[in-house]
Amino acid sequence: MIDITNLIITHGNKTCLQIDALQIPQKGAIALIGPNGSGKTTLIKSLTGIQKINTQAKLLINQKAFADYNNKQRAQLLGYIPQRFNPCWNQTVEELLALALSRTIASSEVMIKACQQFELMELLKRHWNILSGGEQARVLAAMAFMGDPALLIADEPGAALDVKHRLQLIEHLVAYGKQQLAIICLHELDLVFRYFEKIILLDQGKLIFYGSTHDLINNPLLDQTFGVFFKRIKQDEGYLLYPKLSNP
Ligand SMILES: Nc1ncnc2c1ncn2[C@@H]1O[C@H](COP(=O)(O)OP(=O)(O)OP(=O)(O)O)[C@@H](O)[C@H]1O
Q: Cross-referenced SMART domains, in alphabetical order (predicted)?
């Protein structure tokens, strides 16, 4: 479903992202991880068409470059939960959801379902700029899910959420990956190794691992990349990672 070759993103003389080849199938929930500045958001911006890519690169989503889709097709193709969002003016939650709905072919029932799913009913008349960070994150998630996109991308969607809403959102995203493709950038490695079956690991702009969580968990690459020593604690549902700065 996603086919990337020769992707190089530079800013000034710094190469911020270089991916020689990466193919991702059309279903699954994939965690995108890496230290600060490793290129995760740059990859997400490349996938969502926000970042201009080099002319030699091939970046295809369902065999077509993002630029070759029209606006309506893009809305059905892609749902995006950004790290930060500022609406053009200070709209209400209801207006924002209606705007997102108008870009899809979904019925208004889908909007009601999204409101229930993300506990937005009480917030519908509230304006964006008075919402808390976590409330804003739930609105963005609802907007992205409503179109039932083939590809759902989330950039640190749980960062502002309390523990319950964070788990709910991660579970929605992972469940979404059973039918469609969801790529989620996150720093909470415990959640990664508990919920996700596949991982993309970036370091200093390079793709250094793409594969199963099972293959990465005991790989020293994980410790080297993050510059810490992880104690891996096996749980029924996955692994808890306990990081230390020095080798115990
Ligand atoms: N417009 C830009 N101009 C210059 N440098 C940029 C620009 N955008 C990104 N970078 C640099 O590219 C590198 C990768 O940035 P990116 O935001 O993709 O990292 P990240 O992995 O998402 O980091 P974080 O975990 O901190 O969010 C960083 O060193 C960043 O400073």
A: AAA
* 119: its two tokens: 């506990």
Query: Which pLDDT value is given to residue 88?
Result: 76
Task: Identify whether 17 is part of a domain.
Answer: no
* Predicted confidence (pLDDT) per residue in 140-156, tens digit: 999 999 989 999 999 99
pLDDT at position 248 over 80: no
Predicted confidence at residue 90, as pLDDT, reads: 85
Specify the residue for token string 């808890």.
240
Asked if residues 56 and 129 have their Cβ atoms less than 8 Å apart, the reply is no
Whole-angstrom CA distances from 54 to 4, 9, 22 are 12, 7, 16
Residue 122's domain is classified under what CATH number?
3.40.50.300
Please check whether residue 63 lies inside any domain of the structure. no
State in Å: Cα 99 to ligand 1 middle. 30
228 alpha carbon – ligand 1 mean position (Å): 21
- The pair phi, psi for residue 37, each rounded to 5°, is 75, 10
C-alpha span between 146 and 137 (Å, rounded) = 14
- Compute the distance between CA of residue 175 and CA of residue 38 in angstroms, rounded to an integer: 27
More reliable by pLDDT, 105 or 119: 119
> Mean pLDDT for the chain?
93
Residues 76-92 have a mean pLDDT of 87
Q: Is residue 61 included in any domain, yes or no?
A: no
- Closest residue by Cα to atom 1, ligand 1, is 11
pLDDT > 80? residue 162: yes
Residue 7, domain member (yes or no):
no
Which is the closest atom of ligand 1 to the Cα of 45?
A: 18
Q: Tokens 């003016």 sit at which residue?
A: 89
The structural domain count of the chain equals 1
